[in-house]
Structures are given as structure tokens and as C-alpha cells.
């Protein structure tokens, strides 16, 4: 009976969650995406566009 319970539990938990290697790959992918996004957001083109958008929004209320 005990062996059967252990087999059932192992079968159920076989695919639960990520392994350490999957966490590492996922973390590296997230860091890479964050770095690219940071470079895009802090670029001169995007900063200028955001600045213009804010200026237009502030000036339209006057």
C-alpha cells in the first residue's frame, strides 16, 4: 500500500514547477529583456517623444 501511494505522489509531482535550470534561463531572459527595454526607453528619440507629449498635454489645458 505504501509503495503504491509513493508511486502516485511521484507521478503527480513529476511536472510541478520549474527546475533550477529553468529558473536560471527564465531569469536571464527577463534580465535581457529588461536591458533592451531600458535602452529603448532611455534613448534620445523616446525621451524627446515623451517630453513633447507631456508639453503638449500641459499646454492644451491652458
Give structural notes.
- With 62 residues, the protein is mostly helical.
- Helix content is 82%, strand content 0%.
- The chain has three helices and no strands.
- The model has no long low-confidence stretch (mean pLDDT 84).
Topology:
Elements: H1 2-13, H2 20-41, H3 44-60
Concise summary:
The protein has helices at residues 2-13, 20-41, 44-60.
Q: What is the CA–CA distance across the termini? A: 79 Å
Q: Helix segment count?
A: 3
Query: Roughly what is the average pLDDT, rounded to an integer?
Result: 84
Task: Write down the overall geometry.
Answer: elongated
Taking the sheet with the most strands, its summary is: none
Give Rg in angstroms.
25 Å
**In percent, how much strand structure appears in the residues?**
under 5%
Helix % is over 70%
Contiguous uncertain segments of 5+ residues: none
Number of strands: 0
Q: What's the order of the H and E elements? A: HHH
The chain-level structural class is: mainly alpha
Amino acid at each position: 500500500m505504501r509503495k503504491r501511494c509513493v508511486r502516485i505522489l511521484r507521478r503527480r509531482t513529476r511536472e510541478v514547477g520549474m527546475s533550477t535550470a529553468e529558473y536560471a534561463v527564465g531569469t536571464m531572459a527577463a534580465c535581457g529583456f529588461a536591458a533592451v527595454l531600458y535602452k529603448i526607453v532611455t534613448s534620445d528619440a523616446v525621451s524627446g517623444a515623451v517630453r513633447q507629449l507631456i508639453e503638449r498635454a500641459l499646454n492644451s489645458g491652458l
